[in-house]
Design a protein that fits this description.
The chain is α/β, with parallel strands linked by helices. It contains seven helices and eleven strands. It has helices at residues 2-21, 26-33, 72-84, 121-134, 175-187, 218-230, 281-297, and strands spanning 46-56, 63-66, 91-93, 105-110, 113-117, 136-137, 147-156, 164-169, 192-197, 234-239, 305-306. The strands form two sheets. Strands 1, 2, 3, 4, 5, 6 and 7 form a seven-stranded mixed β-sheet that branches. The termini are far apart.
């Protein structure tokens, strides 16, 4: 073990000594330190990757965006600065030969230019998310100055049209965690996120149905919807209509409603009260109005998840 450690230390010292005596290009450093085959998830349908040559994402190489939908180049410009440090001004190009269909795109990174081609904005989003996964920070500096990406040609399109994730928003879940889940879903090219409320939704109609300090407020949902829509993600509410009437996990021994409003016991099955009493017309009335309220708070998406 001692010999291995000493050998590794000598190798590190040799590399450091070499760096102090000669300048090393981004391309050379990238070959030394960047992944041989950067991971893209989900894997594109086709990807021709050339890691021998790397391109700076700092505006020195022109960027063109081909898309039939207005605003695609502006979307790229806004996120490019956020994700790659340096601003660019993408050039809008002819979209006649762009890949057709929702989410379909072609990404080409070459030394003479970077091209994103897609019929729809969804494809432009996915192309830039792919480039984001391929990029690494420029080498040889203390802090990030710019990003670099390997020369690559990617052709991709979604295999299924409905690509969803399901997250539970528990009382102990922070708003920051939910935002991170949504951003991760967009980065991985999902287009739907189901948010299951466990008594965290602040209902104006029935405030006694949830925790008084629930973090799923209507203003917070508007903010999260804006983030999701910008990334091509639709948020869907889940309401437990048939079970989990406690809006909590049974193992906790808590009941979001009955802990604070024992007067509403008839809305739930006798004994432990973990299920709605669906033979009670009042329970049905409350649930219909509650579902309509939370659906509107989510921006009236095309779906509601009835848990």
């Amino acid at each position: 073990m001692k010999r291995i450690i000493v050998g590794s230390s000598c190798a590190v010292l040799a590399v450091l000594a070499g760096c102090t005596t000669s300048s090393v290009s981004d391309e050379e450093l990238a070959r030394q330190k960047a992944p041989i085959r950067p991971l893209v998830c989900p894997a594109p349908k086709t990807m021709a990757l050339e890691t021998a040559t790397w391109v700076k994402l700092d505006g020195s190489v022109p960027v063109s965006v081909s898309c039939r939908e207005a605003g695609a180049a502006d979307w790229v410009a806004r996120h490019w600065k956020s994700w790659f440090e340096k601003p660019v001004v993408p050039r809008a190009a002819n979209a006649s030969a762009s890949p057709q269909g929702e989410g379909a795109y072609r990404l080409v990174v070459a030394t003479n230019g970077i091209t994103i081609a897609a019929e729809r904005l969804s494809g432009v989003r996915y192309a830039l998310q792919t480039l984001r996964q391929l990029a690494v920070a420029g080498r040889g500096t203390l802090t990030v100055d710019h990003y670099i990406a390997p020369c690559v040609t990617v052709e991709d399109r979604p295999a299924v049209s409905w690509r969803g994730l399901h997250f539970c928003w528990f009382p102990e879940t922070t708003v920051q965690e939910v935002e991170r889940f949504i951003r991760l879903a967009g980065a991985l090219k999902f287009n739907y996120v189901v948010l299951e409320t466990w008594g965290t939704f602040r209902s104006d109609l029935f405030p006694w149905l949830g925790w008084k300090d629930g973090a799923m407020t209507k203003p917070e949902l508007r903010r999260l919807r804006g983030i999701a829509e910008d990334l091509g993600v639709t948020l869907i509410p889940q309401v437990n209509v048939f079970g989990h009437a406690s809006f909590s996990r049974g193992c906790t021994g808590k009941h979001a409603t009955l802990d604070f409003g024992r007067a509403y016991q008839p809305l739930f099955e006798p004994l432990m009260g973990w299920n709605w009493c669906l033979t009670n017309p009042e329970a049905k009335r409350v649930l219909k109005a509650y579902v309509a309220e939370i659906h509107e708070a989510f921006g009236n998406p095309p779906y509601v998840h009835l848990g």
